[in-house]
Amino acid sequence: ELSDAIPDSLPVSFVGKQLEKFELSPSSLQQYLDCPLGFYYIYILGIPTVPGEGGIFGSVCHEVLQKVFEYMKRSRDKAFPEREEVEILFRKSMERHRASFGPEGWQQYLAKGEAFLLPYIEAKVKEWNKEVVLERVIHTATKSGVPVSGTIDKIEFRPKNEVVLVDYKTASPKKEHWRKAVMGKTQGASVWRQMLFYHLLYEAWDHRGHRIRETLVSYIQPDPISGERVDKILTFNEEEKEWMEALLVDTYAAIRSKKFEGCGKKDCQWCTFVARYAELQNLENKEIEALDDRQ
């Protein structure tokens, strides 16, 4: 109902029920930090969000990368597929998502895949580690009392019981993606926080004693200026890990306490909706209401 548009209209018991099995993930953390009211709509009311064509293309890239590694694992000599086979995998994946693209977007992202994804894979098969786990979905992990979850694109197993956590990005690489948090002042860039989250998530989940050597953000698109491929290594010190743990604890506590106020940003769709809803509440017609015919 429209009355549910305002968080204060829902009883705490309802929020508690919705959060019974809730696990904080990089996406839900990011949404709460962006706008607690938006978090309320998506994770409490369950309003579905529809990814744009860029998001669908990102899913296609992840599907193709996963199938490339699955091909290698099935291969008798552990060989990756040739470029022609990768192109077939890409076009099949695009076809599965064709309904999500408009005519112009379809042509644009087909060209983008051929220009960036296929050359990326062709270059990387020469250096990729083959001892990997792909698309590892982690649930039921707890960090500092906070239930956490997430999907790590790739876990590479290295000598000396070490692992590397890899996340693929289809966006163009930018240095601001890796901006660290300034303790007590800023929260850092979303990609930096995401990889720090994965670091803590894996530590909380893994019981085999693996040591995280590093996290790696691998960009499918090359640097727009230099044209070079970008694999950004991110490592985290104890102070940064403690900072993230505190952020998880504070955010989870705020969510459980039903703190869903709007962010107040002018371009926030969720805050704009509530402001518009408040205006509509004032468009009452007392004469019609007095008829009480419920039609």
Specify the helix fraction band.
Answer: 40-55%
Give me the secondary-structure category.
alpha+beta
Q: Sketch the topology as an H/E string, one letter per element.
A: HHHHHHEEEHEEHHH
Average of per-residue pLDDT values: 88
The fraction of residues in strands falls at 15-25%
In short:
The chain is of the alpha+beta class. It is 46% helix and 16% strand. The longest helix is centred in the first third of the chain and has 22 residues, at 53-74.
Q: How would you describe the overall organization of this protein?
A:
The protein has helices spanning 12-18, 26-34, 36-44, 53-74, 83-96, 103-124, 190-205, 238-256, 269-281, 286-291, and strands spanning 132-143, 146-158, 162-169, 211-219, 231-234. The chain has 295 residues and is an alpha+beta fold. The two termini are 17 Å apart. Residues 280-292 have low confidence and may be disordered. Helix 4 (53-74) runs parallel beside helix 6, helix 5 runs antiparallel to helix 6 (103-124) and helix 7 crosses helix 8. A hairpin with a 3-residue loop joins strand 2 (146-158) and strand 3.
Show the helix and strand layout.
Layout lengths: L11 H7 L7 H9 L1 H9 L8 H22 L8 H14 L6 H22 L7 E12 L2 E13 L3 E8 L20 H16 L5 E9 L11 E4 L3 H19 L12 H13 L4 H6 L4
Parallel strand pairs: 3-4
Antiparallel strand pairs: 1-2, 2-3, 4-5
Helix pairs in contact: 2-3, 4-5, 4-6, 5-6, 7-8
